[in-house]
Amino acid sequence: MTDQISATEVAEQQTPATASTRKVFVKTYGCQMNVYDSERMTDALAKDGYEATTTLEDADLVLLNTCHIREKAAEKVYSQLGRLRDMKKARAKEGRDFMIGVTGCVAQAEGDEILRRAPAVDLVIGPQTYHRLPEALRRAKQGERVVETDYAIEDKFDHLPAPQKAQTRARGVTAFLTVQEGCDKFCTFCVVPYTRGSEVSRPMDKIVAEAERLVEAGVREITLLGQNVNAWHGIGPDGVELGLGALLGRLSKIEGLARIRYTTSHPRDMDDALIAAHRDLPKLMPYLHLPVQSGSDRILKAMNRRHTAAEYVALIGRIRAVQPDLAISGDFIVGFPGESEADFEDTMALVRTVGYAQAFSFKYSTRPGTPGAEMDGQVPEGVKSERLERLQALLFQQQTAFAAGCVGKEIDLLLEKPGRMPGQLVGRSPWLQPVNVDAKGSEIGDIVRVRITGAGPNSLFAEAIG
Ligand code: SAH
Ligand code: SF4
Ligand code: F3S
What we know:
Layout: E1 22-28, H1 32-47, E2 50-52, E3 61-66, H2 71-94, E4 99-104, H3 105-110, H4 112-117, E5 123-125, H5 133-141, E6 146-148, H6 156-159, H7 165-171, E7 174-178, E8 180-181, H8 192-195, E9 200-201, H9 204-216, E10 221-225, E11 233-235, E12 241-243, H10 244-251, E13 259-263, H11 272-280, E14 287-289, H12 297-302, H13 309-322, E15 327-334, H14 341-354, E16 358-363, H15 381-406, E17 410-418, E18 424-428, E19 434-438, E20 447-455, E21 460-464
Parallel strand pairs: 1-2, 1-3, 3-4, 4-5, 5-6, 7-10, 10-13, 14-15, 15-16, 19-21
Antiparallel strand pairs: 8-9, 11-12, 17-18, 17-20, 18-19, 20-21
Bound molecules: S-adenosyl-L-homocysteine, iron/sulfur cluster and FE3-S4 cluster.
């Protein structure tokens, strides 16, 4: 069972476990925002006396933090719930409690439906109400089956505990920080505007305070998160309206913070100040995840992306002009309704023009309630599979070429964790690639100068220099 449901990276508390300590196992699906949320929920439950565990058998409470983006992701949850139900029955025979909670985007999208389909579930909580988790848990323990999927009026971030030093340390030298949630773009294939609600930015001072706290606890690299992170906007100390470029500028003044990244961006929100940040801020890593989804203008229009393929390519050109070292990453969907072979060829052509260092590509999945689900011209599964294969072959070729092009370069490496071999450490290149290095005398959290000596399919090899 444990290998069926592998643990997310949850922190161990500092306090030693006692026989009476209750334990929570959190399984995270989906995007980095869910990873961040899982950490915040773990912190909130720690205040309530729950210790995080990575062993399912030890858990008194299991939370599945779910993703609704594609059908497969959502269905996975129900198969896990089937296994957890059996476990709950076995526990009941021993007279032991075992509570099951569903959080995240499936919780938001399906609400009570989850209780109907999976009677073993005790509580269902959507992403906007995680700060109510301890209270919901109390009600569930009294036998109520709790569903919390309202969009809370209060800001959940004001009510969730900020990252604590001990937990942050245990999580490592890199951290996620959510700065923006929700989406108003309504791409016709996408559930996010329905599961995460409309766009909300956290205030600049709260973000800066959280970043400073992370750095005090030893974090060297922060990745700012948002469904549309570059739609972030806020008010500066002098009352002036600011965008993500200004926020990055402010964060890069934090001493001890060595590297900053952000994800995921929408092409429509890449403004001049953000592009300038890539020129002006040495701490901002030369890596940009900028999904385009398709290279066909007809399909882009049907997707409601509100830009053309040429505009996207021109935008990449403008960013590369100020930061020639930039690695581009993207997301693609094949087989959106109405996509012809010629449309798909336009996507292949765009990929050849841009040259991606990294990419994620998916077969279109019809999502209930989205406009795409009602569109004519749904593409047969076989055609989608065949196109995905061709696209992934091209993207893999580009990724391999990018990695091979790194061999011989001297770069700074942030050491993140022990490697497989004794004395070896694994770090990340500025372009987010894992790099293995023999770094004797160096520690996790150090930034070391290395020369890239080799490139494997998923990671690089390097030697320390100087
Ligand atoms: N906010 C980001 C994307 C968030 S979802 C953006 O605007 O780009 C992450 C990725 O999942 C998307 O970029 C898209 O490629 C993919 N995706 C979203 N809905 C999908 C669907 N219905 N079928 C297949 N892939 C989908
Ligand atoms: Fe989904 Fe589009 Fe919003 Fe991205 S921009 S989260 S793809 S609706
Ligand atoms: Fe999935 Fe929700 Fe993230 S649908 S991709 S977990 S915002």
